[in-house]
Design goal:
Helix content: 40-55%
Shape: globular
Number of domains: 1
Distance between the termini: 40 Å
Number of strands: 9
Order of helices and strands: HEHEHEHEHEHEEEEH
Largest sheet: 7 strands, mixed
Structural class: alpha/beta
Strand order of the largest sheet: 1-9-6-2-5-3-4
Number of helices: 7
Strand content: 15-25%
């Protein structure tokens, strides 16, 4: 979902980055050896008549975006330039986006995501995004789970060899021909907005992913 906050040239740039970035990410990820734990949980939630809300730390979105490609997952993407070129990549990899963030347009985007879930579309959240602080859970995903009754699906990825982007979230970019361990935890029902189990489960998933690489 493009945003009107960008200039016409910025929209051109985001489309160009998406057109180049999506096939580059796809080519990179096809060189990777994947070790995946819990990959059945996504489909199990769908078979139960509900839809999952995938949650991941912002710094691990690249391998997770690719792994869940082509599933029609709705993702909230910031309305700023960086958020929108990421959105174009997400869309070219077979998912969808709504524009908004915790700092701008968040309420509107959450309502849009709630409607998409009620229509049967899975959702995904960078739990600490778009501006951090890193690995501090923001309330959006928990609110959405409570509003829809959809379970949260905590996901974490670690690479055997990677580059780290010099950004607030220390984004991990797996190197070609590396191994990526991706851990998908059991669906987590949320009772209310004060429930803090999600961050604990993601941290446990990280420990499990690192053990899979040893």
């Amino acid at each position: 979902m493009p945003t009107d906050r960008l200039t016409r040239f910025q929209r051109f740039e985001t489309n160009l980055i998406g057109a180049l970035g999506a096939p580059a990410i796809d080519a990179l990820c096809r060189t990777i050896t994947w070790k995946v734990e819990g990959d059945h949980y996504f489909d199990e939630v769908l078979r139960s008549g509900r839809v999952p809300i995938v949650t991941v730390w912002h710094g691990r979105i690249l391998p997770v975006i690719w792994y869940f490609r082509g599933r029609g997952v709705v993702v909230m993407a910031s309305e700023n330039f960086d958020g929108q070129w990421i959105a174009r990549i997400i869309e070219r990899l077979g998912n969808r986006t709504v524009a908004g963030s915790t700092s701008h347009g968040g309420s509107r985007a959450l309502i849009s995501m709630k409607r998409e879930i009620e229509r049967g579309a899975p959702a995904a959240f960078a739990l600490d995004g778009p501006r951090g602080p890193a690995r501090v859970a923001q309330p959006g995903a928990v609110w959405l789970a409570g509003a829809t009754g959809s379970p949260l699906l905590p996901v974490h990825a670690e690479a055997s060899r990677s580059w780290t982007v010099n950004s607030w979230d220390r984004t991990m970019v797996p190197k070609p021909f590396s191994t990526v361990a991706l851990v998908i935890g059991p669906p987590l029902p949320i009772i209310d907005a004060s429930d803090h189990r999600l961050a604990d489960v993601l941290n446990a998933n990280e420990k499990g992913a690192r053990q899979m690489l040893t």
